[in-house]
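tool_call predict_complex ligand=adenosine-5'-triphosphate
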Amino acid sequence: MAFPSQPEAATAARTPKVPTLHQFFAPGGLLSQAHPQYEFRRGQLQMAEAVEKALTERRHLIVEAGTGTGKTLAYLLPVIRSGKRVIISTGTKNLQEQLFFKDIPFLEQLLFSQNPGKLRVCYMKGRNNYLCRQKLYDLTDQPVLSGLDEIEHYRQISAWEPVTETGDRAELTELPENNQLWHKLDARTDRCTGQKCAQWDRCFITEMHRRAMESDIVIVNHHLFFADLALRQSGAPDAGILPEFSAVIFDEAHELEDVASSYFGVTVSNLRFEELARDIESTLKQKQASSPGLLQALGRLRERARFFFGLLPQGEGRFAFTGRDKFLEKHGDDYAAVMQALARIFSELEVLPKKPDEVFGFARRTQELKTQLAFIMESEDKNTVFWIDWRGEARKTRTGQAHIILQATPIDVSEILKQTLFENVETAVLTSATLAVAGAADQGSFEYIRRRVGMDHARELVLPSHFDYARQAILYVPPDLPDPRSASFARGAAEKIRRLLEITRGRAFCLFTSYAQMHDIHDRLLGELPFPMFLQGSAPKNALLEEFRLTANAVLFATASFWQGVDVQGEQLSCVIIDRLPFAVPNDPVVAARIRAIQEAEATHFLNTRCRRRSSP
Ligand SMILES: Nc1ncnc2c1ncn2[C@@H]1O[C@H](COP(=O)(O)OP(=O)(O)OP(=O)(O)O)[C@@H](O)[C@H]1O
Ligand code: SF4
Ligand SMILES: [Mg+2]
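tool_result ok
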């Protein structure tokens, strides 16, 4: 697969007056006239120069610059000056929105106020963020809604559908994030009939692609980027949704390895079986195209899958699926029964006398599930770690079962990324506040990240932080809290947080490593704090963030997606509290497999070099 170069026409040619980096960032320059808090940050200008050079010379670049350096502008300006089509990939959807709704309009106003519309930028998110018009219309014909909340949410979505231009649910600021109705209406591929759909021309996904084709800068997130890369790699027809591009900038690039691994891996859960059966049943019932044989096969699939997942080793959270061969020796018949049940669904779909368009998608999903389950249960690939994520009580499925997820994750994605990405794209820039590993002379080194992601050749730059942390910040680690794994932790932590928030008068983010902990501590403090409290999940993230920015003394309770890159200026955010350091734990199955692989590789390398030295004359 290749990413053919884009003609370097676009923005720069159409707008020859984009200032040079110096004219923009230097004291007295354009930025200083427009940014109310402007400071000259040497690191920011150096980073911008390095990005510009990488784009011009078609080289890769890794750059680390401390948090708050202003990395966003440092890559956006050279990107605009380059005139190439560039993909910018961020760590989260929040950051995409921050770029699209804040940084880009700021630059547009500054650079192109005389030529509005010259800067062609769009964002793309995963399909489940967009409304499927067809699903909404189907639901309107046969409303099956449960509860008053769902009726109210349905009313909001139906009123919004004719007026929204993007169909992006982030616009529905009143809609809670974990909303069941949205799950039934989003534009995932599961029931999409593509060009055969009556809404295809006005579909929000079609529209998103159209906008991307016409844009010079396309803002995506790592999940979308690697989902796209993995899809292209699989060679599926029409694979890939990103337009052709010349360069890609990965912001928050320390996450690349983990995100890429999850998309080059395989995931099968009991919920996926339930959803497949439900989608086939409800769609074919609605289209009056089902058959008694199919209904019977669906019942059998549900029963077999539930039984099979019930036999899997039980645990809490993520753990390695060791002894798959022993498991198969003991439960081989039950595994075979699930595979047969899937095969039977496939053949029942094939012989349906009347085949609505959705049937082809269902057949594809059935086959995919079968191939993927077979890989997880039978593959002996040495570069893959097999593991189970058992969500137990914390997250029951609609059938009351625990949510059980089987995973196969590549241990080392460097070769895949090297071949599919870095050898095909002219310029890739990796940036973040944390990429280098301190070496002996305290000189940051990118060797570790380069090796892990397969980036053999890249220019490198480490820029010191612009801030004097020792003078400008306080770090407090409570010395007397119970072990975070103990039951008494939440009570102690809530009390400590309450006292800290009294000192800072709110104006804080309280960030947690799990939803359960976030809810627990939030509920303990509800009514105890004299400050406005916001909770992740109660509204879309960008809406929450905007409310936080606008509300005096606010406190936000949130999880991973607010950990990084979020920009709240001034004293509105004066304190960040985290429940525990989010380091990958060494007994996590994927981390453990990686540590083992690195140790083995080092041992082999050590043995080889020693043997060579000893045997050389
Ligand atoms: N030269 C500058 N002077 C003052 N403020 C600036 C300057 N450049 C950028 N900023 C502001 O600094 C804030 C942080 O910028 P940005 O989000 O790009 O930081 P970052 O380097 O990406 O940090 P992080 O690593 O936390 O993501 C933003 O509000 C931005 O508008
Ligand atoms: S094309 Fe697919 S996603 Fe779009 S409206 Fe039709 S079914 Fe929904
Ligand atoms: Mg940033």
